[in-house]
Design goal:
The complex is a heterotrimer of chains A (527), B (125) and C (139). By secondary structure, chain A is mainly alpha-helical. Helices cover 73% and strands 2% of the residues of chain A. Chain A has a domain of 226 residues. Chain A is built from 22 helices and two strands. Chain A has a two-stranded antiparallel sheet with strand order 1-2. The N terminus of chain A is likely disordered. Chain B has a single domain, classed as Orthogonal Bundle (Helix Hairpins), CATH 1.10.287. In chain B, helix 2 runs antiparallel to helix 3. Chain B is elongated and about 85 Å long. Chain C has 139 residues and is mainly alpha-helical. Helices cover 71% and strands 6% of the residues of chain C. A two-stranded antiparallel sheet of chain C has the order 1-4. The chains are: A mainly alpha (527), B mainly alpha (125), C mainly alpha (139). Chains A and B meet through helix 6, helix 7 and helix 10 of A and helix 2 and helix 3 of B.
Chain lengths: 527, 125, 139
């Protein structure tokens, strides 16, 4: 039994003393809700009938909490809560500004849509192996990574999402899945170990792990030591997680092997967590150091864009094409990181939101194609336009979006980034973005033409006698229609009415570049 | 003492990178395990080394009596050890399973997800 | 390992170890001990029982699937943070109450609930691994 130690007389100095309202707890809700539901689903693992519905409820609550948090951050500026009442930097802080809240909200919507799709596809065996608990735990990791204000805590959330993603990617244990998982697991583990290494150096140099505290110390100019080396190490680790050239090869090797939903959620969320970490650490914490190697980042960005899209042009498998397009999108965002102006960061945030929506939708669409044609090979698909004109039209919007053409969200992200490169006068970076956009449109429209437009798979006669596709069962049809419909509408709506998103992203970009509000929210203006 | 530990960390990194560059899964796995330990030792060294005084506050006092060992790096390492241990266990099972199913532990011949003889994509129909 | 001495002795040893693990769990706040080490002790108790009498009796004895136990632990460990909403203090703040039962003053806290959660997580995961390995050996 815990005995009462000597009475501590004066504790006010080391404790947070503000009274908190229920709304203040919104900042931990996006982590607490998925963990609670993950635990609940773990207990109900042997009852697959209820799993899907509980997961949908959980994801809906998560999305609501993230929405509330975003509203709150927009109203009052950055919010901080330090666990266990210890004053920062001693307690572990959760600090969220607009950029973090925006991405957390988008990812929760993606997860919600994903859970609707999963409800109709997850098999009993997959549920017994814990698909839903892993999914929930991964969302806890993703939200935690977006919300935390502590470097080591960020590492822990990375590991949480990584280990649950391992569990999800290996479901099924077929030969190509094992092969894909090997490459995914090893390379991601090495990347997070590098992140831990950089965290260790940061602690050795600054004596703190709280991001706001690190920012204060790095910008005080009193720090003596290889700060730039640490910044480069962080960049290397996160770039590897985000699949930037030349560390991109794990992504197309693994993302086409798991269940369709799993690859959809991974493509939508995981690489973007890497991009977010790049923004938070490389851009916000080590801003001056980033300037020193900005040109290298620019080269990496250009090569990632071009290498990604060239890879997409050389593939047969639809999901492998999409995998390379994810990489190309990462390159586009890195171009913004290389520039580092307010416009560029706005562009990154808009593009990240767009990319989350559209990449998830494309992989889900690949899943529907896989259901209809029993294949994802360009040579063995065709004739879906005749079977479902709606689906073909939806895919067309996604294709426009991913190539950055109006009237979709992809256009605005690329537009702002191009504007940022032109403002800086980096013509070759402008050229790289535009060329990659052109090649992306070639790659994705080839998918559209082969899968939807032509009459049937290679070898069948085109034209009058259209290829018969497999009929879908009603439950699956409905789930696919809702999930794809929401995402297609989202990318279309954000393309036609982009003001809200761009305005929010611009505020988020200012918050990342001039984080005084963030620092004040952590230290309460006392330091 | 710091220099000795720094050299040891350097040795660990050398060994682990050498193993990671191998094409056999089991060696890569050992490389990952050693890499994790190298990083743990690195954090330990970066947290400054002190004489073995446990960070415990005597019952009568409210603050520690004199210089104590820094407990934070040890807490960080403990977390990292638990995490890297579970990852190692997962990868070990995965590698074993892959060896059983794919009949190889040579990454050069692990080409099931990305077949070697894939033809070029169709250019027209 | 299937000697009659071990098989007769194992249930008593298991009971003793589980009891001791609870003791370790409860003294953990101010003294060496706590949920993690207590959970390890309990898991090894189940492992010993499994070695002596086979895996099926262990599964029957703990009734719930070990993974479900781990899920339960995770659940209450997370719940332990929630009372701080009522107390209007940050998440996961340790809150204490000292109820008096007769002349004994009990020190109860949310950290204790958290520690019990950790205990169950460790018991669940380690037991499920140990039982899976022992099932392999029996085949």
């Amino acid at each position: 039994m815990a005995s009462k130690g000597p009475e501590i007389t004066d504790v006010t100095g080391i404790l947070v003393n503000a009274d908190l309202q229920l709304a203040d707890f919104l900042i931990v809700a996006p982590v607490v809700i998925p963990i609670l539901f993950s635990a609940l689903l773990l207990m109900l693992r042997t009852r697959p009938a209820t799993q899907g519905r509980i997961a949908i409820i959980g994801m809906a609550l998560l999305a609501l909490a993230c929405f509330g948090l975003l509203q709150r951050v927009l109203d009052t500026g950055p919010v901080t809560m330090t666990m266990g009442r210890w004053v920062p930097p001693f307690g572990i802080s959760f600090s969220v500004d607009i950029a973090g809240a925006l991405l957390a909200f988008t990812s929760s919507v993606i997860a919600f849509v994903g859970s609707i799709y999963a409800n109709s596809t997850a098999s009993k065996l997959e549920m017994r192996y814990g698909f839903y608990p892993f999914f929930m735990a991964m969302m806890a990791g993703v939200s935690g990574a977006f919300l935390t204000g502590d470097l080591f805590n960020l590492y822990v959330w990375f590991e949480v999402l990584l280990i649950s993603s391992f569990g999800m990617i290996v479901l099924g244990s077929e030969k190509n899945q094992l092969d894909g998982t090997m490459k995914y697991a090893f390379l991601n583990l090495v990347a997070t170990t590098m992140f831990l290494m950089a965290t260790g150096y940061t602690y050795g140099l600054t004596g703190t792990l709280n991001m706001a505290d690190i920012w204060t110390k790095v910008n005080s100019g009193l720090l003596e030591g290889p700060v730039t080396t640490i910044a480069v190490l962080f960049f290397l680790a996160f770039a590897m997680k985000a699949a930037a050239f030349p560390m991109n090869f794990w992504l197309p090797a693994s993302y086409h092997t798991p269940k369709f939903l799993v690859s959809a959620v991974f493509a939508g969320l995981l690489t973007k967590v890497g991009v977010y970490a790049l923004l938070r650490v490389t851009l916000m914490l080590f801003a001056d150091q980033r300037d020193l190697f900005a040109e290298i980042i620019a080269w990496i960005a250009a090569l990632t864009m071009i290498a990604g899209v060239l890879g997409a042009l050389a593939q047969n498998d639809i999901r492998r094409i999409f995998g390379y397009l994810v990489i190309s999108g990462i390159g586009t965002m890195l171009a913004g990181l290389a520039i580092g102006s307010v416009t560029a960061i706005t562009g990154i945030l808009v593009y990240a939101v767009h990319s989350m929506i559209v990449m998830t939708a494309l992989y889900l669409a690949a899943g529907v194609v896989g259901r209809m044609m029993n294949s994802n090979d360009l040579r063995q698909v065709g004739g879906i336009y005749a079977a479902s004109p709606m689906f073909a039209a939806g895919f067309l919007i996604l294709a426009l979006s991913v190539s950055g053409l109006p009237p979709t969200s992809g256009f605005w992200g690329k537009f702002i980034l191009v504007k940022a490169t032109v403002e800086l006068g980096a013509w070759w970076l402008t050229a790289a973005i535009l060329i990659s956009g052109l090649l992306t449109s070639i790659a994705i429209f080839r998918v559209w033409i082969f899968t939807f437009w032509r009459g049937g798979p290679s070898g069948t006669r085109d034209g009058a006698e259209a290829w018969k596709v497999e009929p879908l069962n009603q439950e699956y049809q409905l789930a696919a229609f809702i999930s794809l419909g929401v995402l297609v509408l989202a990318t279309f709506a954000l393309g036609v009415f982009p003001e809200v998103l761009i305005g929010t992203a611009a505020d988020g970009a200012k918050g990342l570049l001039y984080p005084t509000g963030y620092i004040e929210s952590v230290f309460g203006g006392t330091q | 003492m710091e220099i000795a530990l720094a050299l040891l960390v350097g040795c660990f990194f050398t060994v682990s990178i050498y193993l990671l560059l191998s094409k056999y899964v089991i060696r890569i796995l050992l490389g990952v395990a050693i890499l994790g330990n190298a990083v743990n030792l690195l954090i330990f060294t970066a947290g400054r080394l002190t004489k073995e005084i446990p960070p415990i506050i005597p019952e009568a006092l409210q603050v520690p009596d004199g210089i104590i060992a820094n407990p934070l790096p040890q807490a960080l390492i403990l977390t990292a050890i638990v995490i890297s241990f579970s990852f190692f266990a997962f990868l070990l099972v995965l590698g074993y399973r892959a060896f059983q199913d794919l009949n190889t532990d040579d990454t050069d011949s692990m080409r099931f997800a990305e077949p070697v003889d894939e033809p070029n994509p169709p250019l027209g129909y | 390992m299937n000697t009659i001495i071990f098989r007769t002795f194992a249930p008593y040893l298991t009971a003793l170890m589980v009891l001791f693990s609870v003791f370790i769990l409860l003294r953990g706040h101010n003294d060496p001990g706590g949920g993690f080490i207590g959970g390890l002790l309990a898991a090894s108790a189940f492992a010993i029982y499994g070695i002596a009498n086979g895996v099926t009796p262990v599964r029957r004895a703990i009734y719930f699937h070990p993974i479900s136990l781990a899920g339960f632990g995770l659940f209450i460990a997370t719940l332990a943070g929630l009372p701080s909403i009522l107390a209007q203090v940050p998440f996961l703040t340790g809150l204490w109450v000292y109820p008096k039962i007769g002349s004994v003053e009990l020190a109860l806290s949310t950290t204790l609930i958290f520690d019990i959660g950790v205990y169950f997580v460790v018991v669940g995961t380690i037991t499920s691994i140990a039982l899976a390995l022992e099932e392999r050996l029996e085949d």
